[in-house]
Backbone:
């Protein structure tokens, strides 16, 4: 499978296997960058003369070499320490137990994926909603959360109603307390609608998405 990945024919495992740059980004670079910094630090100290400086310019050059070497050494030490403590797996840079960690945090959580649109281009919001639903269906059983696709629109649309678990139509006469307009107005109404429907709490998370976004 090439890049960019097509969310419509993608599974989680295929995603992990498909990113050709993953070994470079997650395995090689985390080790190569601090190694280069360490070698640069050693080289800076080696080329710094130990005899008295002949001029002010030479003093400044020597100070610069020492500073460069010190910074490189500190950088290398911090990165190497993080590699030792947290590891650098080759699974997109995530620790081996990343899935279990996420499952522990997401199990029992309700995530409302709220797509806000004016409604004048329903096909755009529909494409976004389909991509969200694709991933929600695949990740719900993996991580144990409950996903709700919510579409907040200024205009009614049968297509969007079919795609949404929650379709929130912003009334034409609705006004916020501060007279907010456009998206801010729709967002405020969606908040009030969720409070009214009891879709609030510590275990309810809201994920705001623009209607021109494709997840994946």
Residues:
């Amino acid at each position: 499978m090439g890049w960019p990945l097509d969310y419509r024919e993608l599974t989680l495992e295929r995603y992990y296997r498909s990113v050709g740059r993953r070994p470079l980004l997650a395995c090689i670079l985390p080790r190569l960058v601090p190694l280069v910094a360490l070698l640069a630090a050693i080289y800076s100290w080696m080329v710094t003369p130990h005899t008295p400086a002949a001029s002010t310019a030479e003093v400044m050059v020597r100070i610069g070499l020492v500073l460069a070497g010190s910074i490189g050494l500190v950088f290398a030490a911090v990165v190497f320490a993080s590699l030792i403590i947290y590891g650098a797996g080759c699974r997109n840079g995530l620790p081996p137990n990343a899935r279990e960690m996420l499952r522990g945090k997401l199990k029992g959580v309700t995530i409302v994926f709220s797509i806000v649109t004016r409604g004048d281009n329903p096909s755009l919001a529909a494409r976004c909603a389909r991509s969200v639903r694709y991933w929600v269906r695949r990740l719900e059983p993996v991580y144990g959360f409950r996903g709700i696709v919510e579409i907040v629109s200024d205009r009614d649309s049968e297509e969007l109603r079919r795609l949404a678990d929650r379709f929130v139509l912003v009334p034409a006469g609705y006004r916020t307390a501060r007279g907010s307009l456009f998206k801010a107005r729709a967002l405020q109404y969606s908040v009030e609608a969720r409070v009214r429907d009891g879709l609030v709490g510590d275990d309810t998370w809201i994920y705001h998405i623009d209607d021109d976004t494709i997840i994946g």
In short: Confidence is low (pLDDT under 50) at residues 1-5.
